[in-house]
Amino acid sequence: MSHNRQARPVPPLAGYYAERGTYNRTATTEELLDRIPLAGFRHHEAPRLWDILKRGQALTVERERTNTHDGRAVAVRWMDHHLGYLPRDRNGLAAQLLDQDQPLIARILEKRNHADRNSRLELGLYRAKPRPTPAH
Questions:
Q1: What dihedral do alpha carbons 117, 121, 124, 126 form, nearest 10°?
Q2: pLDDT tens per residue, the chain (136 residues)?
Q3: Segment 50-54 long-range contacts (CB within 8 Å, at least 24 positions apart)
Q4: Backbone phi and psi for residue 126, each to the nearest 5 degrees, phi listed first
Q5: pTM for this one?
Q6: Helix, strand, or coil (residue 16)
Q7: How far apart are CA 112 and CA 72, in angstroms?
């Protein structure tokens, strides 16, 4: 018997239409904060998982406070696989929001067979939009 269990819950694809590559901001529950490339592609598991990774796929972003190379390091993961990082020169906002316990996710916006490994995966960094408070 085969069990297909995920190590982590993957957020829903609210508002993203992967087949067309367009975004419906009025229908989404997420706010796009930045478009950012994946750094460290060749040093982690992204090359091995290349055929599995798809546009629109949700990824987790996590602070790595003990990273000795970058005090604001933000790791990008798919399930329990470490794909890489947000680039050091672009991770300040994500690190700040994660330090404030604001939930963030990344989604694969573009997947390219590009000679420059830093241009292979372009991510969208998202946070949940605040829910409107009901009027009394």
A1: -90
A2: 444 444 444 444 444 444 444 544 434 578 899 999 999 877 887 888 888 989 999 999 999 999 999 999 999 999 989 999 999 999 999 999 999 999 899 999 988 876 665 668 999 999 987 766 666 6
A3: 53/78, 53/83, 53/108, 53/111, 53/121, 54/18, 54/108, 54/111
A4: -125, 150
A5: 0.73
A6: strand
A7: 27
